[in-house]
Write a structure and sequence with these properties.
- Strands 2-1-3-4 form a four-stranded parallel β-sheet, sandwiched between helices. Strands 6-5-7-8 form a four-stranded parallel β-sheet, with helices on both faces.
- The protein has a domain of 199 residues: 3-Layer(aba) Sandwich (Rossmann fold).
- 54% of the residues lie in helices and 10% in strands.
- The chain is α/β, with parallel strands linked by helices.
- The radius of gyration is 21 Å and the shape is globular.
- The structure holds Double cubane cluster.
């Protein structure tokens, strides 16, 4: 994948990676990327930036992180969209997403967590144990959140595998008490980040960080809206890739690249051009986050002749919806505005959680989707449970739903393909 292998190998060795296993991972990632993305036709030209980012995801970007560290900045990794990037940026840190989407090192992972653990958790254990993640290796701090039972218990062990770990508590109810807890946790996280960076949280850097992250989310929202067009101007796979890269890339550069894609898509929409023909069956994917390189389900959906027009997911709309109002003259006021935004995230760890069903229905309407595929990872109790209420709610409104429980492996691809093709046929009817 790299254009500068000799130097990169020295860098990876310096980071303590297992070079043979890392080679195997990059090779698998490279050929999967080739098959999944580069065989698509009629892609927007501006996707070349994202192809480049992926080709250098363990190369140039890691070098940038090391340069930032050499300049005194701290790298903070996290696994969840409840960890506010704004606080990290305001203290001159660099934020990186650490969720992994590959079935790698699962055997090693299963000596620390039960076999009946979701693939996302096994994957981050596997990457750490097999020493193949340069992002994890560059982190000065990893923030883990008490969301689902799987993550919060897994962190008890995982915390010993990283340089420095901080555990953030999380509310489980959208109540005033829940909001107060999130507010208190953001305060505590700010103190931890201050301790890490040796800086104090100040109004102007916080306001600037809010502006940077708002601009990124606004660009992603613009992209999301353009997907309402028929014919669809971009494939679901490419849109998902952009949302995945949002967790790794430099935010300002990423925002500009997303705006470039949107400019091109606007032209396509104005000319009535699409990446697939008008009338292609349109699907929303709703459920668990899909981290790189988890492209299995959207690839099958699009190979079956449908287009994914939106992701009701943390790697997608749920993670990026709503901006932070940058109104306020004190750190406390700006912290309140941050909590206003983050407390609206409707993760399935909340109970009850009708907001997620309503949001999915609203997305289905505004993006003119013909149906919803609910995607849950096996052993993910929160999303597997919500799949049933989601299905009942949408089917009562005559929105077709397909419920899928899967993992990161390829064993069920044939069976998934059969079910998804049948669902797409239903949408055509
Ligand atoms: S805000 S969705 S990023 S917690 S798949 S580990 S839920 S058992 S990832 Fe998430 Fe934050 Fe919620 Fe979003 Fe647990 Fe389920 Fe595994 Fe999951």
């Amino acid at each position: 994948m790299s254009t500068n292998l000799t130097d990169n190998r020295a860098m990876w060795a310096h980071l303590g990676l297992d070079l043979d296993k890392h080679d195997a991972l990059l090779q698998a990632l490279g050929s999967l990327y080739q098959q999944t993305f580069l065989t698509q036709t009629n892609r927007p030209q501006a996707m070349s930036y994202f192809d480049f980012v992926m080709s250098e995801v363990h190369g140039l970007r890691i070098r940038e992180l090391l340069d930032a560290k050499a300049a005194g900045r701290k790298v903070v990794g996290s696994f969840c969209v409840y960890v506010p990037e704004e606080l990290i940026l305001a203290l001159d840190g660099v934020s990186v997403g650490l969720c992994a989407g590959a079935e790698f090192g699962f055997e090693a992972a299963e000596s620390y967590v039960p076999r009946t653990t979701c693939a996302l958790i096994k994957s981050f254990f596997g990457f750490a144990l097999e020493k193949v993640c340069p992002y994890l290796a560059t982190t000065d701090l990893v923030v883990g959140e008490a969301t689902c039972d799987g993550k919060k218990k897994a962190y008890e062990t995982f915390s010993g595998m990283v340089k420095r770990f901080y555990a953030m508590d999380m509310p489980q109810h959208h109540s005033p008490e829940g909001r107060a807890l999130l507010r208190a946790e953001f305060e505590k996280l700010a103190r931890e980040l201050e301790d890490l960076t040796g800086r104090r949280l100040e109004v102007e850097p916080l306001r600037a960080a809010i502006g940077t992250v708002n601009a990124k989310r606004a660009a992603l929202a613009r992209l999301a809206q353009l997907r309402a067009a028929d014919p669809p101007p971009i494939s679901g796979l490419d849109a998902l890739l952009i949302n995945q890269i949002a967790f790794y890339d430099d935010p300002a550069r990423f925002t500009k690249a997303v705006q470039d894609v949107c400019d091109e898509l606007e032209g396509r929409v104005a000319r009535g051009e699409g990446v697939m023909p008008a009338g292609t069956p349109r699907v929303i994917l709703s459920g668990c986050p899909m981290a790189v390189p988890n492209w299995k389900v959207p690839a099958i959906v699009e190979q079956a002749g449908a287009v994914v027009v939106g992701e009701e997911s943390c790697v997608g709309e749920r993670g990026q919806r709503n901006l932070v109002e940058a109104t306020g003259n004190t750190v406390e006021e700006l912290m309140e505005r941050l909590v206003d935004r983050y407390f609206q995230i409707d993760c399935a760890i909340y109970t009850p959680n009708p907001e997620r069903r309503e949001h999915t229905r609203a997305m289905q309407r505004s993006l003119h989707a013909d149906g919803v595929i609910h995607y849950a990872l096996q052993f993910c109790t929160p999303y597997q449970m919500e799949a049933f209420t989601m299905e009942r709610h949408l089917e009562a409104e005559e929105v077709p739903v397909l419920r899928i429980d899967t993992d990161y492996g390829a064993e069920d691809v044939g069976q998934l393909r059969t079910r998804i093709e049948a669902f797409v046929e239903r949408l055509r009817g």
